[in-house]
Amino acid sequence: MPVWFRRKPGFNVLVSLQKPFFVLIFLFIGCDKPSNNLAVLAKVENAELLEKDLSSDPTNSKTKIDQLVNQWVSDEILFNSAVKSGFNNDIDLNFSSKKYARKLVGQRYLKTVVGRDLAVSSDEVVEYYKNNLDSFKRTKKEAKVYHLFTDNKKEALEIVRVLGVKGKKQEKNELFVKRGIHPVVVRSGSVLPELEKTLFLKTSKKRLWGPIKSRFGYHILFVLERYESGSVIILEEVYDEVFQRVFQQKFALKSLHVLDSLRNHTPYVIN
After folding, report:
1. How deeply is 4 buried, as exposed, middle or buried, from its count of CB atoms within 10 A (0-12, 13-18, 19+)?
2. pLDDT in tens, 84-120
3. Which fold is adopted by the domain 138-227?
């Protein structure tokens, strides 16, 4: 996997042997066995997380499921530790838990009722975008690029040849299909120093760069576009974000209307 963004490593297997309790957790995500809704994804002491507990959303990626599993593990470990320390008998905590449960049920009801017929049109998205252009200005330089990576210098030089002027169109297509390459937009300050220099510090309009050596291997960059800080991001690239903004605005407004209607039809007294 190409490594060029600064990121913290993740963990898929957790083992804890620290007192006062012993925890051994096995995560089976990524196994080649047939899917089974009763498959155990993780276990903390006597508690088990089954695959069916996470299968309600079919759009969950493996990475997302990994995150959900690890979050469940952390929650279970904290809960077990709290119980063993007597926190589950805390009167204030029990009261807070009941209070939170009532609020959670009410919020879920409101979310269901409000979201039932809520829709956002493309015209609403366009109108919001035009009226809020300042919020879609870039705060740093950005670039849209193809990024290819290999730890083999000979292979890197071959990639440069294929992407260069001497490379044939069929060779280019085969290279992109083989490697599953898609353009990505990167921001200044988010890439390796070696790539930062090429993408954002050099003034040359050259499009093909590489091989660029880093501690991970060899990088090849093909620059499609460069964007200056302060330039406005086109609607196509932020459509989903604008859609969500409009949806949240309409949701908040409709929530107030629904709540006002409920208050008007429900007897209550405020002293």
Report:
1. buried
2. 777 767 666 676 777 777 788 888 888 888 888 889 9
3. Chitinase A; domain 3 (3.10.50)
